[in-house]
Amino acid sequence: MVAELAHAGLAVAVVNPKRVREFARARGQLAKTDQLDARLLAHVAEAIRPPVRPLLSADSDRLAALVTRRRQVIDMLTAERHRQHTAPGSMRERIGQHIAWLTEELQALDNDLRQFIDQNPAWHATDDLLQSAPGVGPVTAMTLIADLPELGQLDRQAIAALVGVAPMNRDSGPKRGKRRTQGGRAQVRSVLYMAALSASRCNPVIRAFYEKLIQRGKEQKVALTACMRKVLVILNAMVKKQRAWQYVKKTA
């Protein structure tokens, strides 16, 4: 629907339905009908002015579809491998055949993705930039290109909030609540987590940042979430400035 409306020349904004429902409750509107919802959406658009979603090209749509399909195949592979350990002996051979087919399909998708990105000069250049950072591999790079086209176009606060790795304050008067991340793009966060985990071991900047947080008493999960944000901010700056990874060791 979004694509059809955009192709028809209409401005389209995609809004979290939970926020729309909360907007209705704030107005005291608890009833729900199609007519009430239509008026509510018009009021939300007028009052909040949500940003218009840019129209993706056919190539961008295809790239996003390939990355989504790759993620689905991996999920199926993981599920089948778990089932194989507990399935009756008569079913293990069938499951093994399905695993073999899924493995071939995953390889074919990886080949298609690699060729598709290499054929687009802009994507190929961005892919090289992203993978120049220690800890960022092909899967992270292709996911960011497909699912985060805003990378390099927003400031550090906006890109972190968009992905859902920006901690939100929970303060009231003198009370300082525990800050938490919420919302954002789950598929991007999942690859950023793996990138941050790898970078905390092989990337000197992220490793030093991670160790500093642990020494300050932060939990490992909290420290890794902070590393995800730092990795994202660094990659965002690299794409914005069109500069590959550079590390200059500080001397005393």
List keywords for this structure.
single chain, 252 residues, mainly alpha, 3 domains, two-stranded antiparallel sheet, 11 helices, 2% strand
How would you describe this structure to a colleague?
With 252 residues, the protein is mainly alpha-helical. The protein has 3 domains: 2-48, no CATH class; 58-119; 144-168 and 181-241, no CATH class. The protein is 68% helix and 2% strand. The protein contains 11 helices and 2 strands. A hairpin with a 2-residue loop joins strand 1 and strand 2 (175-176). Helix 4 (58-86) crosses helix 7 (138-147). The protein is globular and about 55 Å long. The model has no long low-confidence stretch (mean pLDDT 87).
Task: Look at the structure and give the mean pLDDT.
Answer: 87
Number of H- or I-type helical stretches? 11
Contiguous runs where pLDDT drops below 50 for at least 5 residues: none
Q: Give a quick account of the main beta sheet: strands, pairing sense, barrel closure.
A: 2 strands, antiparallel
- Give the domain tally: 3
Q: Spell the H/E element sequence.
A: HHHHHHHHEEHHH
* Number of E-type strands: 2
Q: Which band does the percent of strand residues land in? A: under 5%
Distance between the termini: 58 Å
Q: Globular, elongated, flat, extended or rod-shaped: what is the shape?
A: globular
Strand order of the largest sheet: 1-2
Radius of gyration: 22 Å
Name the assembly state: single chain
Which secondary-structure class do the elements indicate?
mainly alpha
- State the helical fraction: 55-70%
